[in-house]
Amino acid sequence: MRIVVLWLLLLQLQAGRVGLGQHLEARLDTVRRILHEVPLVDGHNDLPWNIRKFLKNQLVNFRFAEDLREMSPWSRSSWSHTDLLRLREGMVAAQFWSAYVPCSTQHLDAVQLALEQIDVIRRLVAKYPTYMTLVTTTEGIERAHESGLLASLIGVEGGHAIGTSLGVLRMLYQLGARYLTLTHTCNTPWADCSIADEPGHLPHIGGLSPFGTLVVREMNRLGMMVDLSHVSVPTMLDALRMSRAPVIFSHSSAHALCNSSRNVPDHVLRLLAENGGLMMVAFYPHFISCSESATLQDVVAHINHIRDVAGVDHVGIGAGYDGINITPLGLEDVSRYPYLLAELLGSGRWTEADLQKLVGKNLIRVFRKVEEVRDRLLANGEEPIDERIPVQDVYGRTYCRYPET
Fold it and tell me: What's the pLDDT at 186?
């Protein structure tokens, strides 16, 4: 009798698992339909830096349209999560590729590296015209999605990439960069990074310097999004106060759930909502669970928290794949976005209209508003800012620059 009861219980458990599986498949079908209608836009992917690390930016033997998990050196690296096959499986429609510039290049060859990383992004897109297209506008994102091409956008990571020159900033925009992350893990001569907020560290400036505010204003004039991932809280507050257009966090998470200095506190999230900006959630476990491990559900918790504080119109996705060496369980690579969305859909908190905002409509709205501000400033006759950073910083240190008489 006991054996029969156990057998019946086992059958019920198996039936329950099947039912749950069917329920997940139904939600995935809904997610796939949504992603056919609305482009999934991810705010940050560091593949271009891995191409530099592994291949020295030589693309001749880079087989991006094949499964890189089966090819050396990608198969041996915990930093590799991206290829065209998995991007298609994950239904990614638009990707901001990061032109990342290490802090060690500041005051050396940072500008050159930024140009080389933009070059490798542009060459990669040109190598795969049947899969990818270079995009610099909101219209371009929508056209690429309708055509079934991966809209490839460029974001420059690290304000030191402009070499304290607004002229360089303008040229990066001309080459296709549509956001600049104001700092990376180092202060620039005009902005403090998030490390300044950590115990035992003192701010360099205390936010943005007067020249830093000019950088933000010139980005508004150009139509380049101001990215506040990596910056200190005072820098966030200064930029939010100075910017005439919505700002973004391309790959950060909620400080209330993980108190990393890389994350965004609630009072800033509320100001971000007033600004009309966007917080794109990163997947790095150190930003999600403040530990070496995290799960898909932990990422969901951050998305829900940002929604609760800032509102559904101000949250997006900026995973940071290929720039992290550990990933959350269930979000191992770029193929897994539909499972994250299916989890949100199954929670009962997210409608299909809400998911459309999260995956792409919010970013497109913000980007379009940035374009509208640019157009208004142009119509008003606003000229390029031609002021230069002072020869010395606030501490009297002299920058290494060509002497002008």
Answer: 97
Cβ–Cβ under 8 Å, residues 117 and 51: no
Residue 293 lies in a domain: yes
Contacts 24+ apart (CB under 8 A), 80-83: 80/50, 80/322, 81/321, 81/322, 81/324, 81/327, 81/332, 81/333, 81/334, 82/45, 82/47, 82/321, 82/322, 82/333, 82/334
- Asked if residue 42 belongs to a domain, the reply is no
How far is residue 400's CA from residue 294's CA, in Å, rounded to a whole number?
43
Indicate which CATH number applies to the domain containing 158: 3.20.20.140
Q: Kindly report whether the global pTM for this prediction surpasses the value 0.90.
A: yes
Q: Name the domain count of the chain.
A: 1
Mean pLDDT, each 10-residue run in order, the chain (405 residues):
42 37 87 98 98 98 97 96 98 98 97 98 98 98 98 98 97 98 97 96 95 98 98 98 98 98 98 98 98 98 98 98 98 98 96 98 98 98 91 56 63
Residue 186 in any domain: the answer is yes
Domain that holds residue 191: 49-379
158: left (phi over 0), alpha (psi -120 to 50) or beta: left
CA-based radius of gyration for the chain: 22
**Does the CA dihedral 119-94-280-25 come out positive or negative?**
negative
Other CB atoms within a 10 A radius of the CB of residue 168 amount to 16
- The burial class, CB within 10 Å (0-12 / 13-18 / 19+), for 13 is exposed
Residue 114, amino acid:
A
Angle at 52 between CA 116 and CA 134, to 5 degrees: 55
